[in-house]
Amino acid sequence: MTILTPTRPLPTAEEVAIAREGGRALSACLQSLAETQQIEIVDDRGAAHPVRVPVSALRLLVDVLTEIGEGNAVSVVPIHAELTTQDAADVLNVSRPFLVQLLERGELPFHKVGTHRRVRYPDVMAYKERIDAERNKALDALAAQGQALKMGYE
């Protein structure tokens, strides 16, 4: 029997609570029109260290804390990143073999580094957006059909 463990563990209840509190506190700083903010980090000895942070990074941090505050695991991927097939499969929430089939059918561009396939993060996200749009269109058509047939979905 194989037991799969998530590559990114879910946050603990304590981390969720701390993330919620931190996200609320930091989001108040986003109301400012300044391009940078200064936050303070306190080390384990109690010494405070001021850190200047661009507001764009602070927004990202608030988004990360919001997700953790909802109990979600979070990964930050640079826009220009090249993903392994497993990482790309994780982003799309599909199996690696299924992703490889997509690559081989040409539905998602890739290149090889030696014998390993690499997929650009923007290409993965473009595919995800395209598939999500197709799914939403199909769901809308099903809902319309259900309403037309008076199946109780009014």
From TrEMBL:
Presence of keyword Glycoprotein: no
Domain Helix-turn-helix: 83-130
A family per Pfam: HTH_17
Highest taxon, organism lineage: Bacteria
MF-aspect GO terms: DNA binding
InterPro entries named in the record: HTH_17, SinI_DNA-bd
Assigned keywords, A-Z: DNA-binding
Name under which the protein is recorded: DNA-binding protein
Organism: Acidithiobacillus ferrooxidans
